[in-house]
Amino acid sequence: MNLRFLFALAVSKAVYHGMRLLGRQASYLPGWFAVKLCPDYLRHIRKAETVICVTGTDGKTTTANLLSDLLTAGGRKVANNRIGSNTEFGIATAMTCSVTLGNRCRVDAVVLEVDEHYARIVCPKVRSDYIVITNVLRDSLQRNAHPEYVAGKLSQIDCPHAKLILNADELCSALLLPENPRVYYAIARQEGDGVIPPNRVNDCPDCPRCGAALDYDYVRYAHVGHVHCEKCGFASPAADWLAEDTKTRRLTLRHGDRVYDLPMLHDSVFNIYNELAAVAVLYEMGLSADAIRAALEATALTKTRLTEVQVGGVTVVSMMAKSNNSLPVSMVFDYIRKKPGKKAVILALDDLDESKSSERIGWIYDTDYAFLNDENIVQIIATGVRCWDHEVRLLLAGVPREKLVCMQDELAAIEQLHRSGTESVYLLHDMSSYSRSVAALEKIRKVLEGAL
After folding, report:
1. With b meaning 16 or more CB within 10 Å and e meaning fewer, what string describes 172-187?
2. DSSP 3-state of 426
């Protein structure tokens, strides 16, 4: 066995356990040492029976965590990188934890969330059995430029044996790596779906085969839906897993000639897509429909992404909205708009980058703030360093000024929350502000209970 690799494995494990003893997450540095000491570390490390990589613009964290939880609920031992980095070093840390010091695999499966830029590096090295590409959508402009750029990165994945799990409703990812075996999932036309893209952003307006304008049979956000081309006959791929009914808090899924009834973990369309991806992977791994159903019934979505509680008869929902990225925020706004009852919305979207500040606010003007100009949204509280930018954008979207509260101090702003007539409160936080959202939820609870 390669001595350089064994030395790197020993150092990586020592760094991991040392950092854990110091109370650190140890998600990045152990893998950094491993790869620096042995550049082919991921090729040498012993693989589990099943290796699943999850990548894409949005939903990869939720989908990867969901897969890990479902496999664990089904009795399998799983290693993953859910505590941190989704680049090569973070993945090397997860793989370190999946083997013994003698490089014997100690888990049944490995589930890896992989950054889109690193998928072409990581997926071949870990010899992925399944690659889930959730979607390729508009992302942070300073990092990912345009969906075509991201699709170009993903098209460089050289892992021909891996089975792809793809969203048939999202063309930028559905057509990637055409030589690989693939399984498609989709959602059939639902009540409320239109035929004209509802968002300001549509990054797939033209036929990928002939360049003519695409026609939508139905569309639910951005370019996500079912399309066809009148000129050349191109159409969205047929779905192997088709969600036919999503309105009853159950999923009615058609797979070939069979129809399955499964629990729905959340009713937002983006989380339904995440669940469909996970179901498709589990079925391909050989789990029965009964086993998948039992695992779903024993599982919930990751609380850092979505938390829902009842406080004094008011539903309080904390949701992660990916700042610096117009489309996910627009999708969350649209989801809130469509929920019944009188609602208050708290925008805690600071869009802070690694330098703790950002001068790039173009994403705010690509975002569909008009979705919040709804008579059932009775109050909008804008907080954080971007509060005034949010206020200007809301006013430009036609939201009446009297509905708005704009205060930089998040906890002080929550004290202005209307208790009377509000049936639900939605707290939207950024990826980096989960810890602040926990404190904000406690403040909301106190306000609604009249403790302040």
Report:
1. bbbbbbeeeebbbbbb
2. strand
Q: What confidence tens digit (pLDDT) does each residue in 188-229 have?
A: 999 889 999 888 888 899 999 999 999 999 999 989 999 999
Beta strand 78-80 with 241-245 is unpaired
Helices 326-338 and 269-284 sit at what angle, rounded to 10 degrees?
110
Instruction: Measure the CA–CA gap between 131 and 171, rounded to whole angstroms.
Output: 17
- Type of residue found at 302: T
Beta strands 130-133 and 163-167: pairing type?
parallel
Asked if 113 contacts 60 with a C-beta cutoff of 8 angstroms, the reply is yes
Amino acid at 398: G
Report the candidate in 74, 66, 76 with the shortest Cα–Cα distance to residue 132: 66
Tell me how far apart the terminal alpha carbons of the chain are, to the nearest angstrom.
Answer: 65
- Please report which helix (H) or strand (E) contains residue 55, including its range: strand 50-55
Q: Which two tokens stand for residue 205?
A: 């307006």
How far apart CA 329 and CA 325 sit, in angstroms, is 7
Measured over all CA atoms, what is the biggest interatomic distance in the chain, rounded to whole angstroms? 70
Instruction: Tell me the per-residue pLDDT of 233-271, one tens digit each, with 9 for 90 and over.
Output: 999 999 999 999 887 788 999 999 999 999 999 888 999
What does DSSP assign to residue 166?
A: E
Question: Which two structure tokens, joined as six digits, stand for 108?
Answer: 């049944």
Degrees (nearest 5) of the Cα angle 182, 261, 82?
A: 55
Q: Which of 182, 280, 171, 187 is nearest to 236 (CA)?
A: 171
Q: Is 263 exposed, middle or buried (0-12, 13-18, 19+ CB in 10 A)?
A: middle
- Lookup: tokens for 106: 């100690």
Alpha-carbon gap, residue 215 to 187, rounded angstroms: 18
Half-sphere exposure of 252 (CA within 13 A, CB side): 9
Phi, psi of 122 (to 5 degrees): -80, -50
Q: Label residue 104 exposed, middle or buried (CB < 10 Å: 0-12, 13-18, 19+).
A: exposed
**Helix or strand run (H / E) with residue 182:** strand 182-187
d(CA 81, CA 256): 34
* Span 3-30, pLDDT tens digits: 999 999 999 999 999 999 999 989 999 9
The DSSP line for 203-263 is S--B-TTT-PBPEEEEEEETTEEEEE-TTT--BPPPPSEEEEE-SSSEEEEEETTEEEEEE
Say how far apart CA 405 and CA 215 lie, in whole Å: 41
